[in-house]
Design goal:
Structural class: alpha/beta
Bound molecules: NADP nicotinamide-adenine-dinucleotide phosphate
Number of strands: 12
CATH superfamily of the domain at 3-205 and 264-290: NADP-dependent oxidoreductase domain
Shape: globular
Order of helices and strands: EEEHEHEEEHEHEHEHEHHHEHHH
Largest sheet: 8 strands, parallel
CATH class of the domain at 3-205 and 264-290: Alpha Beta
Strand order of the largest sheet: 3-4-5-8-9-10-11-12
Distance between the termini: 35 Å
Number of helices: 12
Helix content: 25-40%
């Protein structure tokens, strides 16, 4: 497995997003299947595992802790605080210093570890100055509970403010062929600051894999049901882009998922994609992207095929959009 640099860590060029094992898209796998997937990833050379207090309202961290704690020295563990579930089943955003510290303590327990390698602020709580949230996270570093700090879905300006308080090891934001917002400013800001850019939803939440053709197959609680690009009219327009993607995949003798991930890997050395999957076959397919080298002409073809002008619909609805701080086209 190829390696990339994440602050003080060398990690697999493709990490594993663990969210899908507990919530988000479709029915989560059984406990046994989830365990098998995590162990298969580890055996296959994946050394970056990404979870969050929010995922499954703690269940995802518990799963990762139960399955991987006995292998703790073999991988870099990333989790996130500042966004969690409450007893009423609602998401709660809370970036106050004392809340972040309490959240970290709970994550450490669920993850069955003494230290989280990379602790992200899941969303900037705009009621709290970013300097205060990051200040609390830097105290967690000093206390030895966290090794490094990350942010998620923030603008270049917020990244710079935070970085002035404590070095920001990683910025995690949605980035893929069909979501290009990081190209406005944060990719460059990360490069300048030595911050690794972790690309979440790198497969366009499954769209770029080419298998999701019929929205009626989405389960009742699938998050994509509420996302603008997955609404019937928009999705019908977006599906037309897949023919071109399939053609390029055929030319490269690989799958569309591999093209999507290889495109991210080829964009810059400081990018690490973290695809999510419930399936070992899909995981193996995704990891195969490290062996796909796209030349400049193919990168240009992809950039021209799927971009902000050819994709229909915004990535988030108004409520989700209000919760992020990213630059938008
Ligand atoms: N920081 C944040 O706010 C944030 C937000 C969202 C996600 N994330 C992180 O990013 C990770 C990945 O993002 P994501 O799960 O939203 O989106 P993604 O990785 O772009 O797409 C996941 C979807 O693609 C499907 N898939 C994966 N590999 C496939 C393959 N080879 N062939 C066919 N289908 C495939 C999966 O279905 P199957 O399960 O059927 O394979 C799943 O429905 C998450 O797990 C989470 O850790 C972070």
């Amino acid at each position: 497995m190829q390696q990339r640099t994440l602050g003080p860590f060398q990690v697999s060029a493709i990490g594993l997003g663990c969210m899908n094992l507990s919530h988000a898209y479709g029915t989560p796998p059984s406990r046994e299947a989830a365990e098998a997937l995590l162990l298969n990833a580890l055996d296959s050379g994946v050394t970056l595992f990404d979870t969050a207090a929010l995922y499954g309202f703690g269940l995802n961290e518990t799963l990762v802790g139960e399955v991987l704690a006995s292998h703790r020295s073999k991988f870099t563990l990333a989790s996130k605080g500042g966004l969690h579930g409450n007893a009423e089943g609602k998401r709660v955003l809370d970036g106050r210093p004392e809340s972040l510290k309490a959240s970290c303590e709970q994550s450490l327990k669920r993850l069955r570890t003494d230290v989280i390698d990379l602790f992200y602020l899941h969303r900037w709580d705009k009621r709290v100055p970013i300097e205060d949230s990051v200040g609390a996270m830097s105290e967690l570093v000093r206390e030895g509970k966290v090794q490094t700090i990350g942010l998620s879905e923030v603008s270049a300006a917020t990244l710079r403010k935070a970085h002035a308080v404590h070095p920001i090891t990683a910025l995690q934001t949605e980035y893929s062929l069909w979501t290009r917002n990081p190209e406005i400013a944060v990719l460059e800001a990360c490069r300048e600051l030595g911050t690794t850019f972790v690309a979440f939803s790198p497969l366009g939440r499954g769209f770029l894999c080419g298998e999701l053709r019929d929205l009626a197959t989405l389960g009742a609680h699938d998050l994509r049901r509420g996302m603008p690009r997955f609404q019937p009219d928009n999705y019908a327009a977006n599906l037309k882009l897949l023919d071109g993607l399939n053609t390029i995949a055929d030319e490269q003798r690989c799958t569309p998922s591999q093209v999507a991930l290889a495109w991210l890997l080829a964009k810059a050395e400081h990018i690490i994609p973290i695809p999510g999957t419930r399936s070992i076959a899909h995981l193996q397919d995704d990891l195969g992207a490290v062996n796909v080298a796209l030349d400049a002409a193919t990168m240009q073809q992809l950039d021209a095929l799927i971009n902000r002008h050819t994709v229909t619909g915004p990535r988030y609805d108004a409520a989700a959009q209000a919760g992020v701080d990213t630059e938008e086209f």
